[in-house]
Design brief:
The chain has a single domain (about 5-129), classed as Cathepsin D, subunit A, domain 1 (Beta Barrel), CATH 2.40.70. The chain starts with a strand and ends in an 18-residue tail after the last strand. Strands 1, 2, 3, 4, 5, 6 and 7 form a 7-stranded mixed sheet that branches. A two-stranded antiparallel sheet has the order 8-9. The chain is globular. It contains 2 helices and 9 strands, in the order βββαββββαββ. The chain is mainly β and about 130 residues long. The mean pLDDT is about 90.
């Protein structure tokens, strides 16, 4: 099947960085970024840490960050985790936030909605409120 890679821009509180050819991991919930990269952009760190089980079964304690992610014209908020010896990967939660998904048949990213921040909801009637 092969692998798919994408460039991604990460925007912290004061700085931003563009990472090239980052693996898109459809088995990963969160985007993972190496600690030195996440520290360089001054991303907002949550006080709580996560116990994370990696694909190889290894368990790590990860720091959690909130930042803006951009792939092409698509941008949105992203939860990013980081831990010692992390490898950069783009997870499905980030793709979903950006309005993107990985098409297994076409083997490429495709948009699920227009680019930009979006919040979709449907109200059947105002009587529900």
């Amino acid at each position: 099947m092969g692998h798919i890679y994408s460039d991604i821009k990460l925007v912290g509180q004061t700085k931003k960085i563009k990472l090239k050819n980052v693996l898109i991991d459809t088995g990963a919930t969160y985007t993972v970024v190496k600690p030195d990269i996440i520290n360089s952009i001054d991303a907002f760190e949550l006080k709580r840490k996560l116990n994370v089980e990696l694909g190889n079964g290894k368990k790590v304690i990860a720091r959690v960050y909130a930042l803006e992610a951009r792939i092409g014209k698509h941008f949105g908020p992203a939860w990013v985790i980081s831990f010692t010896n992390a490898k950069n990967v783009i997870g499905v939660e980030t793709l979903e936030s950006l309005g993107l998904r990985f098409d297994l048949k076409k083997h490429k990213l495709e948009k699920t909605r227009p680019a930009g921040f979006a919040y979709f909801y449907k109200v059947r009637s105002f009587k529900e409120f």
